[in-house]
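Researcher: I'd like a candidate sequence for this fold, 248 residues long. If you have to choose between options at a position, lean toward the conservative one.
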């Protein structure tokens, strides 16, 4: 089931999240004495989002950067949404992707042909497997021979200069590419203190682009999202949606 986020709903979610700080694991940081009214409102809005099957929001996101700025969620709310949505309904991947294996009991099993490499890279660099798979899915649709018009190569679309700096001699070798790409993700996560959306923006647009705009965390990213290239704006949302598919 694909979840479409209505921009107006997303704005309400963001406002509620700002009133109730959440850490990167989706855990409330406020004390247990916090009023339950805000949480109840959040859950009600989220349930409406989960039940919605309209495709209108998708076209809105792709055509209006101002709405996209409202619905591209910072790393904190992103994690909370994933936890809430996964608890409410398991997300099944489309059978059109030959690299994904769907299973019974309505639980999505994100098995790929590159799981061993992904698991090893995740362990080595401390990057969640779901995030690695989300980047591979978004960048190359799990095609190890993918080559972009700009010269980006392999599963995670590494440019030659970047690959060389990461110790990758053959970007079309899945083992090398996944290791190098994951190392780069880990570097960006460390650079931006675990802010996932900001790290993903840097992966797509380059750290220099964010530096020029004075973006160092997810809140600043949200505030200045409309100043980023539209490709990067869409990329952040795609990564969030893809990671949700691979959460176990």
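Model: Candidate sequence:
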């Amino acid at each position: 089931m694909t979840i479409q986020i209505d921009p107006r709903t997303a704005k309400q979610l963001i406002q509620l999240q700002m009133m109730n700080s959440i850490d990167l694991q989706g855990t409330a940081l406020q004390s247990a004495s916090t009023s339950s009214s805000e949480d109840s409102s959040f859950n009600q809005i989220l349930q409406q989002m989960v039940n919605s099957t309209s495709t209108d929001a998708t076209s809105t996101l792709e055509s209006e950067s101002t709405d996209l700025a409202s619905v591209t969620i910072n790393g904190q709310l992103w994690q909370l949404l994933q936890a809430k949505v996964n608890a409410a309904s398991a997300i099944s991947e489309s059978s059109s992707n030959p690299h994904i294996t769907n299973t019974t009991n309505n639980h999505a099993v994100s098995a790929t042909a590159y799981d061993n490499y992904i698991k090893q890279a995740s362990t080595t660099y401390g990057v969640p497997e779901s995030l690695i798979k989300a980047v591979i899915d978004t960048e190359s649709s799990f095609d190890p021979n993918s080559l972009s018009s700009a010269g980006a190569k392999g599963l995670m679309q590494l440019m030659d200069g970047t690959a060389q700096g990461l110790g990758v001699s053959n970007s079309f070798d899945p083992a090398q590419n996944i290791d190098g790409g994951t190392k780069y993700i880990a570097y960006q996560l460390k650079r931006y203190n675990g802010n996932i959306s900001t790290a993903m923006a840097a992966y797509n647009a380059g750290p220099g682009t964010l530096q020029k705009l004075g973006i160092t965390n997810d809140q600043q990213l949200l505030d200045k999202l409309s100043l980023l290239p539209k490709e990067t704006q869409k990329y952040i949302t795609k990564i969030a949606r893809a990671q949700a598919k691979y959460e176990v």
